[in-house]
Amino acid sequence: MDYEEVVRGRRSIRGYLDKPVPKALIREILEIAMRAPTSLNSQPWNFFVCTGEVLDKIRKGNVERNVAGVPDSREFRTGPAYDGVHRERQVGIAVQLFKAMGIERHDKEKRMDWVLRGFRQFDAPACIVVTYDKALAGGDIPPFDCGGVVNCIVNTAWSKGLGCVINSQGIMQSPVVREHAQIPDDQVIQTCIAIGWPDDRFPANAVVSTRKSVDEAATFLGFED
């Protein structure tokens, strides 16, 4: 695929085949993605790639603590709840996903099952926990750089036949993630990427989110036309 095909065709994948992802392939994806722009070449990112028993323990601990009502301990700032047009977009994608999955508004059991899937990182065969160096904490540039490399990871993965979803639900209980992914104290957990082979039979994988237009997003200044 060329660049435009990758960007226009990529979707967030929430259903995966029960098929392992080779370590060598993830290494290749990371090597390419780390060419992402980074402020002053600081490269603050690190990656803890988990699969198998390690990932199962993260899933189990995350689900158990969340279901038990243990408060969210994600290490990045989530900010206030979305409002206005941002809330409308949030609701809009949820409606698309629930419609695809046949989840009715009143169906508490199916809605809870969907939430639990998120806590389990959508049962992906592997995940990449993205961290940055705590020595750089306090500014917005390190997480901004991590966002850049995450974008490159998901697009590179898509170009090689893999699907991803950026999934902070799967790392809501950071002590669990730190313990089993062996993340040292000098790292801040920024986000997580579930990664694997897309299951084309999973209805939500066909959902394509909408985007606002260039005219809504961009202001052009100084042009003659």
**Weakly predicted, low-confidence segments:** none
Instruction: Report the β-strand fraction as a percent range.
Output: 5-15%
Q: How are the strands of the biggest sheet laid out side by side?
A: 1-2-4-3
Structural class: alpha+beta
Q: What overall form do the CA principal axes indicate?
A: globular
The rounded distance between the terminal residues' Cα atoms is 33 Å
> Could you tell me the radius of gyration in angstroms?
18 Å
- List the helices and strands in order: HHEHHHEHEHEH
**Mean model confidence by pLDDT:** 96
Structure overview:
- It is built from eight helices and four strands; from the N terminus they run H-H-E-H-H-H-E-H-E-H-E-H.
- It has a four-stranded antiparallel sheet with strand order 1-2-4-3, with helices on both faces.
- It is of the alpha+beta class and 225 residues long.
- Helices cover 42% and strands 13% of the residues.
